[in-house]
Amino acid sequence: MRYEPINPDLFIQNRKRFMRKMQPDSIAIFHSNDLMPRSGDTYYAFRQNSGLFYLSGLDQEETVVVLFPDCIKDGFQEVAFIRKTDDVTAIWEGQKYSKEEAQAISGIGKIFWLEDMDRILHELILLAKRVYLNLNEHDRFQSDIQTRDVRFARQLMERYPLHKYHRAQPILKKLFMLKSPLEVALIQHAINITGKAFHRVLEFVKPGVLEYEVEAEVTHQFIRNGAAGHAYEPIVASGKNSCVLHYVQNSQVCKDGDILLLDFGAEYANYAADLSRTIPVNGQFSPRQRSVYDAVLRVLKGARQMLVPGTTLEEYHKEVGKMVESELLALKLLDKTDIKNQDEKLPAYKRFFMHGTSHHIGLDVHDPSHRYDPIQAGMVFTCEPGIYIREEGIGIRLENDILVTDEGPVDLMANIPIEAEAIEELMNAQVLSNT
């Protein structure tokens, strides 16, 4: 792996936290993600299942983790199965984990080869009354693709129809939301790499460069600093493209006088960063661009302070909406008549600010969560207000990642430039150094 070894205490503690939530006489089974076919005889790059990684740190395909806290068979409370390396695999793909390496990474004492799983797991399941299975339950994702977890669930229910089956995701979601100090450190590392990439962009951007050239500069900085790559599809959107919320074509020329909306984040040790900045292509905001930029920045600063324990996201989003509404009135994009005649279910500000302000972030850029739970210390959120004026080709989004603490919100991106003056100064300093 490109990342430095992670303290196995993280995964040991995560397993303990999960097992404390399990019902008595239960076994929980977690699979690695499938290798996904790409084309011909190739696969997409492998990315580990977040739940399995969270509980073990094992970052290899064809891996299974089994938790059985009440198991009466000595030493089988935690078990992992991994792929056995043969000579052909070693030649073509390189060495896979040894049992000793898997033990050191995960802290799991009993590691078996995958070929032994059917026999061992059969005995363990017969000793249990209940089975926890880990299906993807992200409430904003649906797919027709049958994952390894889905296939395994169906096989297990057919083979053991009299067991009671339970969902692992409700437990995992509760655990995912509260980051330990080790997890925060990994997120911070991903953020630091992301910050380096943004500085590189400020040195590179000028009229005439292509959006995908900017993307290449970001990717270069990610890879050279040990990231796996992008935590999500990067957005490099100049001019009118900045008003397309999920613009990922990144194919147009960045023109003099336009703004450039950037939304990207590094993935380090499977943990994500999520940054948004909007910069002037020529190094100088126009008066109109600057007024909209400053409005969005004021909303970010206000919204950031509201990420405190006890607040619900629903309450938070309503208050941020009021802040955006106020800024839109000042920008003369809305007037009092618009506010008076607005539909409560679709406020007038939604014409210019269509998306939510914050989401959980961690092992996934949109970390699974119980969205109706109150905010708690230890959660990490994005804070990403925006204003998009399609008629003017101006889309401004600013985004930082915020740690919630009992002492107040901590901006994990505080060291990444965001003030308009700082952006212009850094861009123009590079121009002057090249003259």
SSE topology:
Blueprint: H1 9-21, E1 26-31, E2 37-39, E3 42-43, H2 50-56, E4 64-67, E5 78-82, H3 87-92, H4 99-106, E6 110-113, H5 117-127, E7 130-133, H6 148-159, E8 164-167, H7 169-177, H8 181-204, H9 211-224, E9 229-230, E10 235-238, E11 259-264, E12 266-268, E13 271-272, E14 275-280, H10 287-304, H11 313-330, H12 336-340, E15 380-383, E16 386-389, E17 394-397, E18 400-403, E19 410-411, H13 420-433
Parallel strand pairs: 1-7, 5-6, 7-8
Antiparallel strand pairs: 1-4, 2-3, 4-5, 9-12, 10-11, 11-14, 12-13, 15-18, 16-17, 18-19
Helix pairs in contact: 1-2, 8-9, 8-13, 10-11
Q: What keyword list fits this structure?
A:
single chain, 435 residues, Creatine Amidinohydrolase, 3-stranded antiparallel beta sheet
Number of strands: 19
Gyration radius from CA atoms, angstroms: 24 Å
Helix share bin: 25-40%
The profile of the biggest β sheet is: 6 strands, mixed
Q: Helix- and strand-based class?
A: alpha+beta
How far apart the termini lie comes to 41 Å
